[in-house]
């Protein structure tokens, strides 16, 4: 992701990602393209890929500096010593509460780029959240590499942090969780405060995006994930018993090493049986230096084919899920002149002829149809 630095018109900042080799390759291409188009522009690189091997990024044309991840969120790094948060241009505000990861999944390079898990102190999270709501944001999304591992100074967990945020920052109208490890929502051993919020707190959005990765227990074990399919199924049953219209998302890797046709079918069947509507599907991508890269590989063509089958199943689940909202009125956070998302993270497009609503508004929308994976709706009079 490339940005022109504010107040530094002759500088381009490239924030790199290391989650797949494709993401890293695209960042390198963006840097070369930026240098070709603006040969006199200084390029600053930051993010996980540059953290892993900063020297290689410094060798790219136009790159004058590599900024460590630990420094990239500090205003002083970019020549701005003013305290506080920069004004965001997004209707939905992201609040990073955690960095790094203590787990060593066999496919993942992230811990080598971001280090071990580090949690934002609750007082700092409250200050940031308050600044965001005072800046007009009505929805806040808690983000991090592994937000399930957030821990307070005296041992509080993520659920307690969410309860404290909602109690102390009354301006938060919507609190949403980003991708989360399913282990934290195990009905028996998971975070009791998080379950309490899902049951009792309407300001916590009825939307869970799971770092699932596979629906086959053997593949999950080879990935060194900490959940199994039976516990995830139990968690989904419990979540839907509390909020029947809960929006469920999941990250999935297609064609992980050693995945046979039968093992892939286990994942496909699990996704269909659990009716998970919002899938992020990635064909497996080797990361040199990870244990998975040394395992017997699935041919690239097969990875792509399996990813396509998972996406098709996800689209079918999505349409079945969204169809339940046709004829209902949903409160929608407006993000562009004609689009937004409901509390369940259902995508909604406005079809009325009224003037464009104010970005960041939460409006009641009458849903009248489903088309191309999104709900169509009109504003109530």
From TrEMBL:
Q: Which domain of life is it from?
A: Bacteria
> What Pfam families does the annotation carry?
Radical_SAM (PF04055), UPF0004 (PF00919)
Which cofactors go with this protein? [4Fe-4S] cluster
Domain Radical SAM core as annotated: residue spans:
87-320
Q: Does the keyword Acetylation apply?
A: no
- Write out the entry's keywords from A to Z: 4Fe-4S, Iron, Iron-sulfur, Metal-binding, S-adenosyl-L-methionine, Transferase
CDD domains associated with the record:
Radical_SAM
Where's the MTTase N-terminal domain? Answer: 1-83
Q: Which SUPFAM superfamilies does this UniProt record tie to the protein?
A: Radical SAM enzymes
Against PROSITE patterns, the record matches this protein to: MTTASE_N, MTTASE_RADICAL, RADICAL_SAM
- Write down the InterPro entries for this protein, in alphabetical order: Elp3/MiaA/NifB-like_rSAM (IPR006638), Methylthiotransferase (IPR005839), Methylthiotransferase_CS (IPR020612), Methylthiotransferase_N (IPR013848), Methylthiotransferase_N_sf (IPR038135), rSAM (IPR007197), rSAM_horseshoe (IPR023404), rSAM_sf (IPR058240)
Q: Record's Gene3D superfamilies? A: Methylthiotransferase, N-terminal domain (3.40.50.12160), tm_1862 like domain (3.80.30.20)
Protein name, as recorded: tRNA 2-methylthioadenosine synthase MiaB
- The organism is Gluconobacter frateurii NRIC 0228
